[in-house]
Amino acid sequence: MAHVTITRPTTYRAAVIGTGFMGRVHSHAIAAAGGTVAGIAGSTPERARRAAPALRAEAVFDDIGALIDAADVVHVCVPNHLHAPIALAAIAAGKHVVCEKPLATDLDTARAMTEAAAAAGVVATVPFVYRFHPMVREARARVAAGRIGRLTLAHGSYLQDWLLRPDDDNWRVDADKGGALRAFGDIGSHWCDLLEFVTGDRITAVSAQLATANRRRGGRDVSTEDIVTLQFATAGGMIGSTVVSQVSAGRKNRLLLEVSGTEATLAFDQERPETLWIGGREVNGVLMRDPDHLSPDAARLARVPGGHAQGYQDCFNAFVADTGAAIAGDAPDGLPVFADGLRAARIAEAVAASARARDWAEVPA
Ligand code: SOE
86, 171, 265, 307: least buried by Cβ within 10 Å? Predict the structure, then answer.
C-alpha cells in the first residue's frame, strides 16, 4: 500500500505572550483553528518552560522581540499595562495582533494602538468573545430583522466572585498594572460590547457609581473598584442599566443581557449559553441552540449538533478562526477589532468621569 503523507498547510503561526488562564485558552483556540503556537513567553522563562506542553508550544523564548519575529500573529495575554508596548512592537514588525481587553489602561494609548494597526494594515482583533455564542448571534439577527420591534429597554449584569475575599489577589487590582477602572475594564467592557453588538445601538451617556468592597488586599491599599452600577441612554432611544461586580458570592461568570422592544423581549445568560429566552405575543419560552431554528449567522457558529453543549472555549475557537479568515483576506461578520477595543476605552473613560463628578457623562461616538 502506498504511503501517503498528509501535510496540513499552516497559515497561522502564532506567538502567545502570557502563559496564564488566557494564554491557555488562546493556545487551544489556535490549535483548533489549525494554527501552530510557534513560541511562547511568560512572566519568567521558568514559568514559560513549565507551561509549554499545555500550550502546545514549539519553542520557549526569553526575548519578546525574537518571539515576535518567529510568528505571523502575536497573541498578547499579559497584564493590561503591558498590552500597548508588546502590541505596538508587533505592529511595528508588521505582524497581525490579537490583544486581550482592555486594550490599554488609558484612552489615548488605546487610540494610538488602533491608529498604528490601521496605518500598518495588519489585522488587529480583541477577544470580545461572547459575540461568538450562537444564541447571541440569534438575538442579534432577531433584533436586526425587526422581530423585537423598536427597542426601548436593556438591562442586565455581569457578576463574578473570584475577588470576593480580602485575601483574593491578582495583578488586576493594582491600578498601575490593570488600569484605574478594574472591574469595568475587565468585565463591564464585555457587557457593553455585547449590548451594542446585539442591538446595533450605541451608548451615548452614562451615570455610574463605583464601590470598592475590599479596600485592602495582600497587605496593601486597593483603589480599583469591585462594583459598578451604571445607568445609560442610547442613540436609538433605549434607556437601561447594568450591574458589574467581582464580589458577588456564588456568581462565577454570570453575564446576563436582556433587551426589550415593542414586540418582544430577549434574554441571554452566558452561563446558559445554549439557550435564548424569548418573550412576546408569538412565544414565551426558551429557544435551544437547535440548528433547525437558527438564523444563518447563528447556525454558522454552531460547531456541534443541537443538544451537544458548546461554550466559552468554543467562542474563543470561533474568534481565532475568524481572525485567521480576516488575515486570509475575508471580512467575517462581527469580528471584534481594535476599533471595538477603542470604543470600550471611550465608554470606560465616560464611566470614570461620571463616577468622579457624580453626574451624567457623554460617551463620544
Ligand atoms: C476574569 O474576570 C475573566 O477571565 C475576564 O478577564 C475574561 O475577559 C472573562 O471572559 C472571564 O473572566
Answer: 307
Degrees, nearest 5: CA angle 168-174-175: 145
Q: Mind listing the pLDDT tens digit for each residue in 213-261? A: 999 999 999 999 999 999 999 999 999 999 999 999 999 999 999 999 9
Domains of the chain: 13-128 (3.40.50.720), 130-308+336-362 (3.30.360.10)
Compute the distance from residue 187 Cα to the ligand 1 centre, in Å: 6
The protein residue with its alpha carbon nearest to ligand 1, atom 6, reads: 186
- What does the alpha-carbon distance between residue 74 and residue 76 come to, in Å, rounded to a whole number? 6
- Give distance in angstroms: CA of 186 to centre of ligand 1: 6
Residue with cell string 443581557: 257
Q: Which residue type occupies 234?
A: T
Residue from 252, 253, 255 whose mutation best tests the ligand 1 pocket (most atoms within 8 A of CB): 253
Specify the pTM.
0.96
The answer to whether the complex's ipTM is over 0.90 is yes
- Which tens digit of pLDDT belongs to each residue from 164-186? 999 999 999 999 999 999 999 99
Phi, psi at 131, each rounded to 5°: -60, -20
Can you tell me the distance from the alpha carbon of 337 to that of 328, in angstroms, rounded to the nearest whole number? 15
Q: What's the whole-number mean pLDDT along residues 113-128?
A: 98
